[in-house]
Design a protein that fits this description.
about 230 residues; alpha/beta; TIM Barrel; eight-stranded mixed β-sheet; about 20% strand; globular; binds iron/sulfur cluster
């Protein structure tokens, strides 16, 4: 049994966290990023008593064998958890596919985790520019992000890259830039996700959030740039 893994919450059924699969999602505690669009701030700290225990989640997965296809490790940032490879192995033994949501923290550790996962949802927060990244997420891990993304692309694993279109952070031009950069790196699958204003954001209007999804020129450009491109609203 995996020891010392900090669970912040679970979603017992999801059709949206692992494409095409019925999954359960486990939200890991701890996150080095400070995304301004975060709806899960309570997951940023580690070692919080939550009432969710890994062993109970594993018992739940045993009961759901044959009824669910996959387990997604989400966060927070799951790569914060040193016991993640062990936890993944435990779930794989039960016959589940493994999904991972990450921003690409700790490339060396990601390298260790990657062979164990079947699909990765990789967050791209801003154009791939160190100053922009640091400013947006308040952390200096940009080189790790690039390294992790390259590892993912070299691995041949199924994946998607996605960007949350927070208009306080990103402009339409920024999305063109991200599109260009990802295309040059060889990314094939990309999604734009709509920003849902966090509680403290009383300035952002619906039309600010919507503008990324109604710009036909931008959407056409992205469709032509990737084998798979779509929007999530
Ligand atoms: S990666 Fe997720 S949990 Fe961490 S700050 Fe960003 S939105 Fe919040």
């Amino acid at each position: 049994m995996t020891k010392e893994i900090n669970v912040g919450g679970v979603e017992t059924f999801s059709m949206v966290d692992y494409p095409g699969k019925m999954s359960a999602v486990v939200f890991m505690q701890g996150c080095p990023w400070r995304c301004p669009f975060c709806h899960n701030m309570e997951l940023q700290k580690i070692n919080k008593v939550t009432g969710f225990e890994w062993s109970k989640f594993v018992e739940f997965l045993k009961e759901r064998q044959g009824k669910l296809d996959a387990v997604v490790f989400s966060g927070g940032e799951p790569l914060v958890q040193n016991s993640l490879p062990e936890a993944i192995e435990e779930v794989k033994k039960l016959g589940y596919k493994i999904g991972l949501h990450t921003g690409g923290f700790r490339a060396d550790f990601f390298k260790k985790v990657l062979p164990r996962v079947d699909w990765v949802g990789f967050d791209i927060k801003t154009p791939l520019n160190e100053a922009r990244y640091n400013e947006a997420v308040g952390q200096r891990h940009f080189k790790e992000v690039i390294e992790s993304l390259k590892l993912l692309l070299q691995s041949g694993k199924a994946y998607e890259c996605r960007t949350t279109c927070d208009p306080r952070l990103l402009s339409i031009d920024d999305i063109y830039t991200i599109g260009n950069e990802l295309k040059s790196l060889g990314v094939k699958e990309y999604y734009l996700q709509k920003y849902r204003p966090i509680e403290s954001d009383i300035i952002t209007q619906e039309e600010d959030c919507e503008k990324f999804f109604t710009d036909k020129k931008l959407l056409k450009y992205l469709k032509e740039s990737f084998s798979v491109f779509d929007t999530r609203k």
